[in-house]
Amino acid sequence: MYVVLDEVAFNLVEYTTVVPPNTSGVDPIDFVFVNDESGSMTSSDRSGLRRAALTQMIGQLRAQDRAGLVTFTSTASVKVGLTGDKAALGAAIGSMGASGNTCGTCGLEAGLG
Fold first, then answer.
1. Chain-centre distance for alpha carbon 74
2. In this prediction, what percent of the chain has a pLDDT beyond 90?
3. How far apart are CA 33 and CA 45, in angstroms?
């Protein structure tokens, strides 16, 4: 299991080595994208970079890979369970909003679940 984080921000609070997954094999990989939909995103992501990054990552999935999308505000919501359906993932990414409070641990817990 891997967790993808902003390494620069992460290293400001933790001193550890981030090891990327080995993707050279043929085994399928399951990704769960946990994304912030709290009200702070109206000012933190005015340009829609989170949607663009997720869309780009979905586009890089191999045929055998699956992905899911979990979003969080004050609670977490599974928008799309693990699937290979890129259209469903794209639609869920496009529908992401920004409102409410922030409970990042709620999102991570749902994503790991």
1. 17
2. 31
3. 17
Question: Which of 84, 42, 66, 107 lies closest to 50 in space, CA to CA?
Answer: 42
Under the banding of pLDDT at 50, 70 and 90, the label for residue 68 is very high
How far lies 58's CA from each of 43, 52, 110, in Å? Answer: 25, 10, 19
Residue 48 CB coordination number (10 Å): 12
